[in-house]
């Protein structure tokens, strides 16, 4: 039986994390580095990426490479994997996502396509590249969905909810088809106090957006744990899934939501 410290170690592994410049992705990058993984960090925000890379290098003795990619553009995704030829990651975390609010009746095609391109299509193409290159050697995929996919709560997120349930179906289908070598699981966060969520809360207060403030209040009221989560509390679950601690976990949907979906 392997000892615990070996099971949780990612030493000798390389992990690619999208949306690593902020929030859950950034927290995951730090935990993976602590567990010994070399990192490919992907984001559209180059400045944020550089900052994360420098902080990780100061703290941990791992290799960190950053890639400024717009994940809504498939050619950029293809180019990224071209660059990684022969040094593909062992672990893929598709975390980047946007939760832009827009009334269902005001969503036009361009907006819809953009949200789908970032939240769902990019996960599809990233997984396809990964599975193509790792289906013999094996690997681990963790995709990030949302409680909104299962329990639409906030108004103005119909497009988002559809994209995030797509992520669940995609992940489970991969787990089913490639389970012999690839483990694929979904993490379902909810109410995590990330940079993105803090920005939203601030905007709602600055604009006196009473509807959003009320949603936030109702959200808190039905949250069993009575508090928002810290990005690191999601990162720790992603680390568990990436590691051999979760060697028999495949096709699972894991909420990290303080119990929100149970109410
Ligand atoms: N925070 C929450 O409460 C919560 C709840 C449910 C689901 N999620 C999901 O978790 C994931 C991370 O959320 P977060 O709160 O940490 O968000 P965040 O806004 O703090 O960070 C998201 C990162 O994705 C990057 N990104 C956005 N568009 C991109 C693009 N086109 N190409 C490359 N990178 C891009 C951003 O630059 C940013 O660094 C998202 O998929 C989100 O939908 C978050």
TrEMBL record:
Enzyme's top EC category: oxidoreductase
Keywords of the record: Oxidoreductase
InterPro entries (alphabetical): NAD(P)-bd_dom_sf, SDR_fam
An example molecular function term from Gene Ontology annotations: oxidoreductase activity
CDD domains to which the protein is assigned, alphabetical: SDR_c (cd05233)
The protein's Enzyme Commission number: 1.-.-.-
Family note: Belongs to the short-chain dehydrogenases/reductases (SDR) family.
Descriptive protein name: SDR family NAD(P)-dependent oxidoreductase
Species for this entry: Pyrococcus kukulkanii
């Amino acid at each position: 039986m392997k000892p615990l410290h070996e099971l949780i170690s990612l030493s000798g592994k390389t992990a690619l994390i999208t949306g690593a410049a902020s929030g859950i992705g950034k927290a995951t990058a730090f935990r993976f580095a602590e567990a010994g993984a070399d990192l490919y960090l992907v984001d559209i925000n180059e400045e944020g990426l550089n900052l994360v890379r420098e902080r990780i290098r100061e703290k941990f003795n791992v290799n960190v490479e950053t890639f400024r990619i717009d994940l809504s553009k498939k050619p950029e995704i293809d180019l990224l994997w071209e660059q990684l030829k022969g040094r593909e990651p062992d672990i893929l975390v598709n975390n980047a996502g946007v939760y832009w609010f827009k009334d269902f009746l005001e969503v036009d095609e361009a907006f819809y396509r953009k949200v789908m391109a970032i939240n769902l299509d990019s996960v599809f193409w990233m997984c396809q590249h990964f599975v193509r290159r790792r289906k013999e050697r094996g690997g681990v995929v963790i995709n990030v969905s949302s409680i909104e996919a299962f329990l639409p709560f906030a108004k103005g997120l119909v497009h988002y909810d559809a994209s995030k349930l797509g992520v669940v179906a995609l992940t489970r289908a991969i787990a089913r088809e490639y389970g012999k070598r690839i483990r694929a699981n979904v993490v379902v966060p909810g109410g995590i106090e990330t940079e993105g969520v803090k920005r939203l809360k601030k905007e709602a207060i600055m604009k006196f957006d009473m509807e959003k403030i009320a949603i936030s209040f109702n959200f808190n009221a039905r949250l069993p744990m009575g508090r928002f989560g810290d990005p690191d509390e999601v990162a720790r679950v992603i680390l568990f899934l990436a590691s051999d601690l979760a060697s028999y976990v495949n096709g699972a949907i894991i909420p990290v939501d303080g119990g929100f979906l149970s109410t």
